[in-house]
Amino acid sequence: MSLRRFSQRAMLSRPGRTALTIASIVIGVAAVVSVSIVTATTRESYQVMFAAVRGRTSLEVTAQNTGPIPADLVAKIAAVEGVEGAVPVVQRPSRLTIKEDKRIQLQVMGIDPETDKLVRDMEVIEGHPLAVDDGDKILLEADFAHNLEIRVGDDVRMLTNKGGIGPKKMKVVGLVKMSGGGALIQTGLVFMPVKQAALRFLGKHPETGKDQITSVQIVAKKGTDLKALQGAIEPLLAKGEEVREPKGGAQVLGETLLSTEQGLKLTTAFTLLLSAFIILNTFLMNVGERRRQLAIMRAVGATRDQIAGMLVGESLLLAAIGTVVGILCGLGAAYLLVSSLSKLLDISLPSPVQYMLQPWPYVAAVIFGFAVSLIGALFPAFRAWRVSPLEGLSHVSKQDMTTVPRIHIIIGLVTTIIGCVLIGLGIAGKIPIDIPQYGAVAQLIGIVLMYPLVLVPFSYVTSLLMGWRRPVETNLALKQILRHRGRTSLTVGVLFIAGATGVAMAHSILDNVRNLKEWYRKALVGDYYVRGMLPSMATGTSADLPEEIEAPLVALEKSGEIAYLDRAKMLEAQAKVVKRAQPVDITKEIPDELNVILIIRQSHEPKTSPFDLISPPEPEKRADILQRMRAGDVIIGNIAAARLQVSDGDTLEIGGSEGNHQVHICGVTNDYLAAGITLYMDWDVGKKLLNFQGVDGYIIRARPDQLLALKPKLEAISKEHDVLLNSQAEIGLRVNRISNGISGCLWGLIALGFIVAAFGVVNTLSMNVLEQTRELGLLRIVAMTRLQVRRTISIQALIIGAVGLVPGVLFGLGIAYIINLAMEPSYGRPIEFTLHPGLMLFALVGSMLITWFAAVIPARRAASVDLAQALHYE
C-alpha cells in the first residue's frame, strides 16, 4: 500500500493545522538563527578590529596610564637584539564630521607608511597610499567609507585637540582593505601619517619639547624568546612606561553587551521551549484527529511501521519547509537587531552579512527544526503504533482520557530538581551566568510534565468560579476539557510557560531599567555637558577637547553664570589587587590584572555625590566620600569590583607616569558607564599621580537664575569649536532611548512567546470542536442555540487559559526573583526585585484576552455546523 498520496491529502485537507505547525517551526528556527548571528556579530566584531590594530605585534610599549610616550623610543627599541621591527603608532578616539551635521565616532591610527607593513597588511584598492609627509591626508577602510558614501578626494572634518580652534579638514586619498584577521572590519578605523597624528592629537612634550606617540608595536624575529626580549627592552623605559604582550581591547564592549546577550539568550530559550511544546502539541492533535482514519488503514492492511513511517515523513517535510522559511526570517531579524544595537549603543558594528555566510547558525537551525519536529512526530507515532484498529475506531482515545503515565511524573520531578540545583549554583556564583538560564528552562519543563497532577482540581475550581452565570455551558466545557486530559495538559503547559516566562522577563526588564534610571539620576548631576563625543556606555575612552575651549568656559565661571565647572578625563589603566580585607571565592577565576577605565573628575559641588554607592553601607562613611577621594582614595565600579573580588577597604595598584601607585578603595558604585569596569579618582590626585594631558569633558552646574540664559552662550562656544553640548534632559532622553530600545527587543520576543501560546489554544479548541461535531449537532437539535455553542467553546478557552496562565503568572514572579539573584554574582550589584501589580494585571488580562480571541474561529465554526452532516459525522 502506498501512503504518500494519502499523507499529502491529509495535510492539504487541513491547511490551517499544517500552517500552524510550520509557523511554530519557523518561530523557533528564526530565533536560533537571529540570536546566533547577533551574538557572534557583537562579540567578535571588536575582537577583530583590535586584532587588526595589533596586527602581527609580538610586544608593545605603552604608558601605564595610556598617555603619550617619547617618539625617540622607536629607534632605541629597533636596535635591541631579537627585534625585527619597531613601529610607532598614535591611536586616539575622534569624531568625523560629514556634511555639517553627520558625526561618526571612530579610532584614528597614526602609522609610519614605511614600516607599518611589518605589522599590518593593507591593500589600497582605490586612490594611493600615504606618504610620510602627507599632512592632513587619511586612508579609510573601504567598507566603512562606502557605508558613509565617502569617496576618494572628499574632504571631511575630524575633531582634534591640538593645533587651533575647531576640527581640521582632512582629505581622503585612498580606500584600503585589511588582509588576514582585519578583513572583516567595517568599523570606524582611519589611518593618517604618524607625524601628523602626533601633531593633531598629542603635541610636543610640555617639558622636553620632544615628539610623542602612544605606543611602539614590536615585531620579534622568528624564534626569539619574548620573555627575554621583554627583559632586554625594560631598561630602556622610563617610569610609567611598560613593555607587555598586546591585550584585547574588547573587554568593555563585551561587558556592555553581556546583559543584552543574556536577555536575548534567555528569552530565546523560553521561545524555543514554547515552540517545541507547540510543535509536539500540533503533531499530537494531528494524529488524534486522524486516529479513526489510521485505524481503518490498519484494518485494511497497513502495518504499524508503515503508519509510523508516514507520520515521520510528514514531520520531516514540514520541518524542511519550516526550517527554510525560519532561516530566512531569522536572517532578516538578525539584520534588524544588529542595526538597532549599533544605534542604541553608539557603536559601529559590522554588517551581519559576513556572519550569515558562516555555516554554524544554519547547522544549529537545521538541528533544532528537524530534531524537535522529529520528536514531535515520534511520540504520537509511537502512540498510534500501540493503538489497535478496534480501539482506534472509538470516538475518544483511552490514552487521552486517563491520567498521565507515572514515568512522566518521575521525569518531571527529576528535571525540576536538576533545574533548581543549577539555579542555586548560579545564585551562589559557583557556575557561569550562562548555565542557570538552562536550569530555568529545565525547571519549567519539569513542572509542565507534572502539571496533569493538578489539572483536574484546578479545572473544577475554575469552572465553579465561571459557572455561576452560565452553568450549562460551563459544565459542557469542563466535560470536554477533562475528556481529553492529555491534549488539555499539553496546551495548559504551553500557556503556563508563556505566562511564567512573560511575567519573569517583563519584571526583570523593568527592574533593570529602574536600576539604570536610578544610576542616571545620581551619577549625572550636571546641568550641561561639553564633550568631543556623545557620552558612550559602550567604551570608556573619548576624544580630548580642543585646548582653546577652556578659556571661555572659565570666563563664564568667573562671571558667576556657571556655579561649578568640573573637568573629566578618561584613561585606560591596569588595576592589580595588593591587599584584600575579605576572603575570596576560590571557585571563581580572578585576573592578576584587570583593564579598567580610569575616570578622573572634579566634584566641586559640596553636597551632591555623583555616585550610586553600593558600599560602604554606613551613612557617615558615605557622607565624607568626596573628602576621602580628595585625600587619594578611589571608588571602583561594581563590575570591576566583582571581577577582582574587592570592596571598600581594599588596596589596588595602578600605573602612572611616575611609576606604580597604590590606592585605597573607599567605595563601590553601581555604574553603567563603560560597563562598570571603572575606577573613579579625584582630579587633583590624578594630575599628581598620572600627569595626564587634556580634558575629555566639562560638567557644568549653572546657577539657578542663569540656567536658561547660560544655554545659548554654551551653544555658541560649542559651535565655534565644533564640540557637543548636551543638557541633562538630553542625556536622560538618550539613556531612556538606550534602555527602551534594548528592552524593546526583549519585549518583542516575549510577545512572540504569547503568540506561539495562542497557536496552542487554537489547535486545542479546533480539535475539540471537530471531535464534538456529532455531540454539538445533537445538542442543537434538542434546543441549544448558536450563541450557547459559541459560549461553550469560549468558556473552554477561558478555563484552559485560567488553569495555565494564573499559576504561570504567579510562578513567573519567582523566576523573576531568581533571575535578579542569579545576576548579582556576575554583575557585582544587587538588582532589587520589585513587584509590579499593574504589569501582572496587564499580563493576565491581556493573555486571557488572547486566549479568548483564539477561541473565536473555533467557536464560530462550531456554531455554524450543519446539523445533517453533524449527525452523520464519525
What can you tell me about this protein's structure?
It is a single chain. This protein has 874 residues and is of the alpha+beta class. Helices cover 56% and strands 17% of the residues. It has a six-stranded mixed barrel with strand order 3-4-9-6-8-7. Strand 3 (83-98) and strand 4 form a beta hairpin. The two termini are 24 Å apart. The model is unreliable at 180-186 and 535-540 (pLDDT under 50).
What's a quick, concise take on this entry?
By secondary structure, this protein is α+β, with helices and mostly antiparallel strands. It is built from 30 helices and 22 strands.
Radius of gyration: 33 Å
For the termini, the CA-CA separation is 24 Å
The counted number of beta strands is: 22
Q: What number is the mean pLDDT?
A: 77
Number of helical elements: 30
Low-confidence stretches: 180-186, 535-540
What spatial order of strands do you see in the largest sheet?
3-4-9-6-8-7
Count of the domains: 4
Question: Approximately how much helix is present in the residues?
Answer: 55-70%
**What amount of the residues lies in strands?**
15-25%
Please identify the structural class as seen in this structure.
alpha+beta
List keywords for this structure.
874 residues; single chain; six-stranded mixed β-barrel; alpha+beta
Secondary structure topology:
Layout: H1 4-13, H2 15-54, E1 59-63, E2 69-70, H3 73-78, E3 83-98, E4 102-111, E5 122-127, E6 137-141, H4 142-147, E7 155-158, E8 168-178, E9 189-193, H5 194-201, E10 212-213, E11 215-220, H6 226-233, E12 241-244, H7 251-289, H8 291-299, H9 304-345, H10 353-356, H11 360-386, H12 389-392, H13 398-401, H14 406-427, H15 434-450, H16 452-466, H17 471-483, H18 485-523, E13 528-531, H19 550-558, E14 562-579, E15 594-601, E16 612-615, H20 619-623, H21 625-630, E17 634-637, H22 638-644, E18 651-656, E19 659-670, E20 678-682, H23 683-690, E21 697-702, H24 707-721, E22 724-727, H25 728-771, H26 773-781, H27 786-827, H28 837-854, H29 856-863, H30 867-871
Parallel strand pairs: 4-9, 6-8, 15-20, 17-19
Antiparallel strand pairs: 1-11, 1-12, 2-10, 3-4, 3-7, 3-11, 5-8, 6-9, 7-8, 13-21, 13-22, 14-15, 14-18, 14-21, 16-19, 17-20, 18-19
Helix pairs in contact: 2-7, 2-9, 2-11, 2-25, 7-11, 7-15, 7-18, 7-25, 9-11, 9-25, 14-15, 14-27, 15-18, 16-17, 16-27, 17-27, 18-25, 18-27, 18-28, 25-28, 25-29, 27-28, 27-29
